[in-house]
Fold this sequence. Notes:
Blueprint: H1 19-22, H2 24-29, H3 39-43, H4 50-68, H5 70-79, H6 81-86, H7 92-99, H8 124-135, H9 143-172, H10 180-185, H11 187-192, H12 198-213, H13 217-230, H14 238-248, H15 251-275, H16 277-289, H17 297-303, H18 311-335, H19 342-356, H20 365-375, H21 379-404, H22 414-440, H23 446-449
Helix pairs in contact: 4-9, 7-9, 8-9, 8-13, 9-12, 12-13, 12-20, 13-15, 14-15, 14-18, 14-19, 15-16, 17-22, 18-19, 19-20, 19-22, 21-22
Amino acid sequence: xxxxxxxxxxxxxxxxxxxxREDGVAARxxxxxxxxxxxxxxxxxxxxxxxxxxxxxxxGMFALGMVQKAPCYNGSWFVGASSQYTNACYSDIPHLxxxxxxxxxxxxxxxxxxxxxxxxxxPVLTGVFMEVASWLTPGSGGVRDQQQWYWMANAGLxxxxxxxxxxxxxxxxxxxPWDGLLVALAPAVALTATIxxxxxAVALTAxxxxxxxRGRPLxxxxxxxxxxxxxxxxxLLLGPLFVLCWRAGKWRQFGAALGGTVVxxxxxNLPVMLLAWDGWSQxxxxxxxxxxxxxxxxxxxxxxxSDPLSTETVNTLATLLMLLCCAxxxxxxxxxxxxxxxxxxxxxxxxxFILTNKVYSPQYVLWLVPLAVLARPKWRDFLIWQACEVxxxxxxxxxxxxxTSGDAHxxxxxxxxxxxxxxxxxxxxxxxxxxxxDILMPDRDPVRRAxxxxxxxxxxxxxxxxxxxxxxxxPPRQAVQFEGPRVEWGKPQPAEGSL
Length: 499
């Protein structure tokens, strides 16, 4: 029987980055499961590969999130507004089953809805996802039974999305599969996964990032276009990718990514645009006309002002702030001493959109989780941010409990909710700050300190600069000498010892 050192995996496994060797928080946390894994255990053949472990942990955490919704599933969704907030188990899914015509067999975008919302206010691919879940919902029984089945059908489909996200993150940085555990164990993911349908767009975006890391720009574009057909935010990734390709001179690859995005988005949207324009455009009208809402700093300003800004003014100011952030990211990309990693800029641009937007629903944290892990795979910083997001998750439901409990005022008053919003904003800004620091000081970047250049960058990984500005255009200074073995950027380095 072959020894562990002679198994086929032994030539590849030592190249993996071990989080319990380079991350103190991960090392201490591993004591809960018996401590860091041993070298011989890692070298031996086993079904328990890092990617499979990450996928199973993601499914397990998703299941715990479903258990957390049990009070609502067993009654709080149906007996009154306040109890689903005090139990922090609210979900849009069962309410919209009836409210958006799925219970009555109405076709999204084509059939008008009763009430003020004339058509389904979601992008087309999300509408398709909702419709497929309604096909899986038994038509027998009362409305309450159907709502429960509809939530369960959606939860099953969303669980697949959650597993896909964790696996894609684990495989994007080839030498860092264990970073996928950050996604799988993220408490905010478990708590918010079944509030809405955002996981579909997040899964497609994570798959697109994986394709770009493998040097497949057309596949990246196709998946990104599909993600944008499910939620608007993924198209933002084309901005930093454009500037990175500009700096590296990779115009052909960017053209393939852009073309794939446009074509796949049109394939999904064009039929509905042509046959049901009013229904198709409902999402965009609703986004424009929606007033200042939960979770944004605009809400704090509005609730503390005797003369709040109009929706049109907020739209204009939010757009200007976002454009300023885009300009800042572009300047950072072209002037940084080393070309930033794609995942770093993807995280920053989506975070900027979240911070400047007029609404922050609690499930929007899902947009950032995989990008945050790829941008800054450091357990301490990630958990600090997650703690802020969990606090906000509890804060919004307690605030809604306060506003819906009548004179009883059970929950969190507006002033307390403003503190919860502030905590969410500060946590996101903190993570943005450490990512910017990593860009300006590449020796602080955990990915590059481990010996890689841009493992999520595909053709950008190890590429020469073709266009830079400012300090980046000056001749490089003498490299700083670190203790330990010599590291060649962009090339996997062997690691010895335990996890």
